[in-house]
Design brief:
Shape: elongated
CATH class of the largest domain: Alpha Beta
Number of helices: 20
Helix content: 40-55%
Strand content: 5-15%
Oligomer: single chain
Largest sheet: 7 strands, parallel
Structural class: alpha/beta
Strand order of the largest sheet: 3-4-2-5-6-1-7
CATH topology of the largest domain: Rossmann fold
Distance between the termini: 88 Å
């Protein structure tokens, strides 16, 4: 028989977790409530702990029956452990479990959605009299096909990103209310998540193709990231910003991950590759090695994005581009856990993801996303379009470090263009102002002429960005005109360097 459910909280809960447990529970038992509930909380905030405690209270106070659905075996195990810690005895429905006659002995059931769906197809009463269904990672659409079996139950979905994985099937179709938890920024400020230090590397991703799922195709990603220059950039970025730190590298495919494994192994680094083809023993051995080895590196695909919790991760490398906000947050979230001796972690972005989707800690109005998902997705498409046209650029910290004497890196080409236009002045003066800005930055940081030329070379991405903005303001320009502008821009700065900055002094 099922053990008596204890009424006391078994584990220590954070204050914000207690707040949302109470809020969600009161919604569930509210007789005037209509429709299902969706709960949003960032990765690392403890969604599993929160809904496990809700299950404990719900069963104890209502004597209702609860079903928890997951889509990954790793999440199934993680949830089973959380329920056990909450002193909830649950029945696991996995592929090895056939018919069971002792249903009445349990009040909580835990199942993989595909496994349970297959059982219900042949026997709609395989599991019945369910009062509450909890859906983990509710943004996935695989759960929808099972909802009609539980029409009389209340559904509670939990997710870090309440944005449906299918634009045609918004979450508001199945959930009538969204409860929003603390933001990433709030969890960082209150000491529950680690602060992210993001290093963005401006990479050229021309030729990426979008697949049926709305994200970039594996083949187009592999073509770009397997190139020698990208491999070198990955290794150099690790050496510059993550050397010796415990690191997870996320790639676009198994083949790409294996290529990265060989790259780092040849460079003498302690690295292992992990993918879905590894058996249980290999996976456990690799993760145990990773946990106990300082400076260890794992390269993988998407296998560690959910159901994996290793708080000692110090660096996340995104060796891929993605259009999926959910995947972006899942990958970065693997490094966000806070420890007594860990209050920050490093993100190395090699896919222009921060430009496309925003920084991980940026505020997102999830209520507006839930109500108007199309508007939010259109916003992301607009950002993507600007990125592809070269109209989005943030000077990377690694380049700013080359200009230690410069305080102000702000120059708005678009603002200068329209300021001149409003005064009926020649807009080409905006380019002159930009040249002045770049030259002064080089002059105040260069030790000699050769050093100045080196600094000019590392500013090429920013120069091209400014000229892209300028030509976009003009509406109609040719590629040849852009090349001419770029050549003249560099020639003018070089001319000033040669005439005003001295040659190195011979010793």
């Amino acid at each position: 028989m099922i053990d008596d459910v204890q009424t006391d909280v078994v584990r220590k809960l954070y204050p914000y977790q207690e707040v949302y447990i109470e809020k969600i529970y009161n919604e569930l038992i509210d007789e005037n409530r209509k429709g299902n509930i969706l709960f949003q909380l960032p990765t690392g905030g403890g969604k599993t702990i929160i809904f496990s405690e809700i299950v404990r209270r719900y069963i104890h106070k209502t004597n209702g029956r609860v079903l928890i659905l997951t889509h990954r075996i790793e999440l199934l195990k993680q949830t089973a452990k959380a329920l056990q810690e909450a002193n909830v005895n649950s029945k696991l429905i996995v592929s090895e479990v056939g018919d069971f006659d002792n249903q009445d002995e349990f009040t909580c059931f835990l199942a993989m959605v595909e496994t349970l769906n297959n059982r219900l197809k042949t026997d709609q009463l395989y599991i019945d009299n369910i009062n509450l269904v909890i859906v983990d990672e509710a943004h996935y659409n695989s759960f929808r096909k099972i909802f009609h079996y539980f029409k009389n139950a209340t559904i509670l979905g939990v997710t870090a990103t309440p944005l449906s994985s299918n634009q045609q099937l918004p979450l508001r179709d199945n959930y009538s209310k969204l409860i929003i938890g603390d933001s990433i920024k709030e969890l960082i400020e209150n000491g529950y998540l680690s602060k992210a230090i993001t290093y963005t590397y401006d990479v050229r991703l021309g030729g990426l193709k979008i697949g049926m799922d709305g994200d970039y195709t594996v083949s187009s990603l592999d073509r770009i990231y397997s190139a020698y220059e990208m491999q070198e950039r990955l290794l150099d970025a690790y050496k510059a910003k993550a050397l010796g730190s415990k690191t997870l590298i996320f790639n676009s495919s198994i083949a790409m991950s294996r290529q990265v494994y060989l790259l780092f192994q040849d460079a003498g680094f302690d690295i292992r590759h992990l993918d879905s083809s590894n058996n249980k023993q290999e996976r456990n051995e690799t993760l145990e090695w990773f946990k106990n080895t300082p400076g260890s590196i794992i390269t993988s695909v998407g296998i560690l994005t959910t159901g994996f919790d290793e708080p000692t991760v110090e660096t996340i490398i995104l060796n891929r581009a993605t259009r999926s906000l959910t995947l972006y947050h899942q990958m970065i979230g693997r490094g966000s856990r806070r420890l007594e001796n860990k209050d920050h972690f490093t993100i190395i972005d090699l896919g222009n993801n921060a430009k496309r989707l925003g920084l991980w800690q940026d505020y997102i109005d999830w209520q507006d996303v839930f109500i108007h998902p199309d508007k939010f997705l259109e916003h992301l498409v607009e950002r993507e379009d600007k990125l592809q046209k070269g109209l989005m650029y943030t000077l990377p910290d690694i380049i700013k470090e080359k200009f230690p004497k410069t305080d102000d890196f702000n120059f708005d080409m678009e603002e200068e263009y329209y300021k001149l236009l409003s005064k009926a002045q020649k807009t080409t003066a905006a380019i002159d102002l930009s040249i002045d800005d770049h030259y002064e930055r080089i002059k105040e940081n260069a030790e000699d002429m050769f050093d100045a030329i080196d600094l000019l070379n590392i500013l090429q991405d920013e120069i091209e960005y400014r000229l892209n903005v300028y030509t976009n303001c003009m509406a109609k320009t040719t590629r040849n005109y852009f090349k001419w502008l770029l050549e003249n821009y560099n020639d003018e700065i070089k001319k000033r360097i040669r005439s005003e900055i001295p040659m190195p002094v011979e010793e």
